């Protein structure tokens, strides 16, 4: 048998194998992956044959661990490397507001910024990064649990000439953002625009890698959404049900857009008791008390979002989701802080005025010495200690705190050494 005949036979057998290979059960981890393709998937085969189609020279591999060329036609890892993370998700794509922003608002003119002290005081390096926290936020800590990088802010990447950077995931969240474009308009990147940006990322990856590889990559990634809190801060007291249904109607359209662009694993974080945030308490008609109307709207919103997710799952049969009932959990933190290691759940750690929340945290503001004892960092945002506890509950918790599955189950990570959180 000559070499050409052998080559054709091997290609035929390989192709037949791919067609007949059984599809893995959703949620289970495959035993191995067999890769067929071109330079987009090659991890070094061409190093072993005589060909001019080689890339085992600088500057290939400049961002690969070790900084040396490997035979990958990339500056770093390629899509195969990202798909083979053990049983971890391929990446995480983040949509939301200041509870999830890791620096997007640093890149445009807005008063909704936190790139100054004392923000970031407990973040590695001790400097502000654009996170509305004393340290890491929910997204950073969840990424650690998922064993993926915490995605970089989109506005730090959008001018890249290498779309493969998007394979590390992207964070589109923006401080002050809401579901409605009118919420804090001009100060933030609203949800609709965040998903417009996601669409651009998807298209850039398709141009580079092809639709099949990108759909597979996105479907194995986590799409994280935490949005709605700011819409309640600007709530004008009109009919609660009408307002909530307006929000959920807008949200449905945007979630369908990301589902049409390949998303299949959604992590949705419900809104907190926004009416009990220190800044809201401080500005209430009865200072110090929670705003009951805002809390009612936030609670109803969560109920409607759960119904929406069930509806979407009936329309997209291969969609799976994890809903974290942040309202329910946060309500316990506020009412019984001592049960969770806190001793202050009304006042902010950093700020000025009543409850340390009449004026925002700033370089002249005082801040608490032990951030681990405070639920709130500033008038609107949680401390890293609070975020860490919330992430543990979302990741390994049980219903009714997180359902129909927790984030660990959704991601496909095995439960070995898991510590179930049920509080």
Automatic annotation (TrEMBL):
UniProt keyword Nucleotide-binding, yes or no: no
Keyword flag Mitochondrion: no
Keywords: Hydrolase, Lipid degradation, Lipid metabolism, Signal
Signal peptide segment: 1-20
Lineage top rank: taxon: Eukaryota
Single GO term (MF): hydrolase activity, acting on ester bonds
InterPro entries xref list: GDSL, GDSL_Est/Lipase, SGNH_hydro_sf, SGNH_plant_lipase-like
GO biological process per UniProt: lipid catabolic process
CDD domains: SGNH_plant_lipase_like
Family of this protein: Belongs to the 'GDSL' lipolytic enzyme family.
Full protein name: GDSL esterase/lipase
Native source organism of the sequence: Dioscorea zingiberensis
């Amino acid at each position: 048998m000559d070499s050409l005949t052998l080559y054709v036979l091997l290609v035929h057998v390989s192709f037949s194998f791919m067609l007949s290979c059984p599809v893995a059960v959703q949620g289970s981890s495959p035993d191995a992956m067999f890769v067929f393709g071109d330079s987009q998937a090659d991890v070094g085969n061409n190093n072993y044959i005589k060909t001019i189609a080689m890339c085992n020279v600088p500057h290939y591999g400049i961002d690969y661990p070790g900084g040396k060329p490997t035979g990958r036609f990339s500056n770093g890892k390629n899509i195969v490397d990202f798909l083979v993370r053990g049983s971890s998700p391929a990446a995480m794509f983040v949509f939301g507001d200041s509870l999830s922003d890791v620096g997007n608002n640093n890149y445009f003119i807005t008063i909704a910024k936190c790139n100054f002290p004392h923000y970031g005081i407990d973040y590695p390096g001790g400097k502000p990064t654009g996170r509305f926290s004393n340290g890491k936020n929910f997204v950073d800590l969840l990424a650690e649990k998922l064993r993926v990088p915490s995605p970089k802010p989109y506005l730090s990447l959008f001018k890249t000439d290498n779309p493969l950077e998007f394979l590390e995931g992207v964070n589109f969240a923006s401080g002050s953002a809401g579901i409605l474009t009118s919420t804090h308009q001009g100060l933030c990147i609203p949800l609709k625009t965040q998903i417009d940006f996601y669409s651009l990322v998807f298209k850039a990856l398709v141009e580079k890698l092809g639709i099949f590889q990108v759909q597979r990559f996105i479907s194995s990634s986590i799409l994280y959404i935490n949005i709605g809190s700011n819409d309640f801060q600007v709530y004008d007291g009109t009919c609660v049900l009408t307002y909530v249904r307006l929000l959920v109607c807008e949200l449905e359209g945007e979630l369908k857009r990301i589902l049409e662009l390949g998303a299949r694993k959604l992590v949705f974080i419900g809104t907190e008791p926004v009416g009990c945030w220190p800044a809201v308490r401080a500005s209430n008609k009865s200072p110090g008390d929670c705003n009951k109307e805002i809390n009612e709207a936030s609670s109803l919103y969560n109920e409607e979002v759960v119904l929406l997710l069930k509806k979407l799952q009936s329309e997209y049969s291969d969609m799976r989701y994890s809903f974290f009932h942040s309202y329910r959990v946060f309500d316990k933190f506020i009412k019984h802080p001592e049960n969770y290691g806190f001793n202050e759940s009304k006042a902010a750690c950093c700020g000025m005025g009543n409850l340390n929340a009449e004026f925002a945290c700033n370089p002249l503001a005082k801040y608490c010495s032990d951030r681990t004892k405070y639920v709130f960092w500033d008038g609107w945002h949680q401390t890293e200690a609070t975020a860490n506890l919330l992430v543990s509950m979302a990741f390994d918790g049980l219903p009714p705190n997180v359902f129909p599955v927790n984030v660990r189950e959704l991601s496909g990570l095995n439960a070995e050494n898991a510590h179930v959180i049920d509080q």
